[in-house]
Design goal:
Blueprint: H1 4-8, E1 24-27, E2 30-33, E3 36-37, H2 38-45, E4 49-53, H3 54-67, E5 72-76, H4 83-91, E6 95-98, H5 101-109, E7 117-119, H6 126-135, E8 139-142, H7 145-155, E9 161-168, E10 190-191, H8 196-205, E11 210-216, H9 227-247, E12 253-255, H10 273-291, E13 297-300, H11 304-307, E14 311-323, E15 326-331, H12 340-344, E16 351-353, E17 361-367, E18 376-383, E19 391-395, E20 416-420, E21 423-428, H13 433-438
Parallel strand pairs: 4-20, 5-6, 5-13, 6-7, 7-8, 8-9, 9-10, 9-11, 11-12, 12-13, 15-17
Antiparallel strand pairs: 1-2, 2-3, 4-14, 14-15, 14-19, 16-19, 17-18, 20-21
Helix pairs in contact: 3-10, 5-6, 6-7, 9-10
């Protein structure tokens, strides 16, 4: 299998550079993933359908563990979660990062050890905290002053819980302004520059129920440079040193979050975990040596970088329309199963599958079926004879698609099919019209 390092190098040498490493083209137009033809999956399970390559997920988990020996690698469940994903990450030795009672309950009922789970989120509900304490999660990330008293009260005088504090280091990084979370002007974490992080830490130290074990920061998403992470390390170690000097406190963990960018189209940049690990570990060792601090255990939270490249979305073409100089290719999905193009301007690289392409390529706009002008999946080149009934496959579709999907226009969310060693199996069934009707209980 291609390594993550190789897959992360921007290249236009192959049309399969952003596909799962198992992707093969045995005959022109006959594309298979995990040994299973995608056209066969579309015929068996219908479209739209998400295809998830189990082997790719596992290999990416292993790559992170190899790149960060001695660190704790947590899979960020918000990228995509189902019971099979819980099992794969558990078997590959990763922990889990969850953001809600729903993610937490699914993970634990699927057999994931709660002590290897971290709960965070900027506005945890009473239900989130109650379930986390009842199930015994390993750590809870405190994101606001209100959570300190709320969590202490929920624990009672004899309860104990390990916590981290989410710090805003004042670093702008990420693929879009809406997914940059390390700056001062958003709702996440406690500011380092204005003293709110330090004040929260002092309050936590006054609560015997809360055991502060480390600091947490998350800079954003779809970050493709290691420089922001190196800057974050220096600033977080600076805070660790001040806490040592002010409180005699030496914390044992530093969680740098995730946000590791992937390529959605050939030639796009991506963050190489090996390069990131080398730079972060070197910066952490140097900064701690300069501050005369022991090196804390490193924690990272990749989500998209594990699930994203392992997924493929498959659609049927419903219509082809030409308006002036533009050609629109409409598919049977869209923003209900992938809202990211409309939200963040992400563009993908669809590919015609299921038949040989003999006509020359021509620029087209691939659009969804929904009643929004912003329902655009890609500006791409497809064969000029693309027609209704054709199949299009879209790579890099494993993260933040089903997890953010909706039932807009009451179309229902697509199923998830796992492929591995020539076998396909259903992981998550299609949301049916009966499912949608059953929720409508009043007149």
């Amino acid at each position: 299998m291609t390594t993550l390092h190789e897959a992360a190098v921007p290249t236009a040498l192959t049309g399969l550079s952003v596909w799962p490493a198992s992707a093969t083209e045995s005959r022109p137009g006959d594309l298979a993933v995990g040994g299973v033809p995608l056209a066969e999956i579309a015929d068996r399970f219908g479209t739209p359908v998400y295809v998830l390559d189990e082997g790719e997920v596992r290999e990416r988990c292993r790559t992170y563990r190899q790149a960060f020996p001695g660190a704790e690698v947590l899979y960020a469940a918000k990228a995509f979660l189902c019971r099979a994903m819980v099992r794969w990450t558990d078997e590959e030795g990763l922990g889990l990062d969850v953001c809600s009672a729903g993610e937490l309950e699914l993970a634990v009922t699927a057999g994931f050890p709660p002590e290897r789970i971290v709960l965070h989120g900027n506005a945890k509900s009473p239900r989130d905290l109650e379930l986390a304490l009842r199930l015994g999660v390993g750590r809870i990330v405190i994101d606001s002053p209100a959570e300190i008293a709320r969590l202490a009260a929920a624990l009672g005088p004899d309860g104990r819980q390990q916590v981290l504090v989410r710090v805003v280091p004042g670093i702008a990084a990420g693929g879009h302004e809406k997914i940059r979370t390390g700056t001062e002007d958003q709702q996440f974490g406690l500011s380092l520059s204005d003293g709110h992080a330090q004040d929260a830490i002092a309050r936590i130290l006054g609560r015997p129920q809360l055991r502060l074990v480390g600091l947490h920061c998350h800079l954003g998403s779809q970050i493709t440079s290691v420089k922001p992470y190196a800057t974050a390390v220096r600033r977080m170690v600076g805070l660790l040193a001040r806490l040592r000097d002010q409180h005699g406190l030496v914390l044992s963990e530093l969680d740098l979050g995730g946000g590791h960018g992937i390529a959605h189209r050939p030639g796009d940049p991506a963050l190489d975990p090996a390069v990131l690990a080398h730079r972060v570990r070197a910066e952490l060792a140097a900064s701690c040596a300069a501050a005369d601090l022991p090196v804390p255990r490193l924690v990272i939270e990749p989500g998209r970088a594990i699930a994203g490249p392992a997924g493929v979305a498959v659609y049927h073409v419903l219509a082809v329309k030409r308006t002036g100089d533009r050609a629109f290719v409409a598919v049977d999905g869209g923003m209900s199963d992938n809202p990211r193009p409309a939200q963040y301007g992400v563009r993908y690289a669809p590919r015609l599958i299921g038949r040989p392409a003999t006509a020359p390529l021509t620029p087209v706009t691939v659009v969804g079926r929904h009643c929004e002008a912003g329902d655009v999946l890609a500006e791409a080149e497809l064969p000029a004879d693309v027609r209704p009934g054709d199949l299009l496959a879209v790579p890099a579709a494993g993260a933040y698609q089903l997890s953010m999907a909706s039932a807009y226009n009451l179309v229902g969310r697509p199923p998830v099919v796992a492929v591995h060693a020539g076998r396909a199996r259903l992981l998550v069934r299609r949301e049916s019209l009966a499912d949608l009707r059953s929720r409508d209980v009043g007149l």
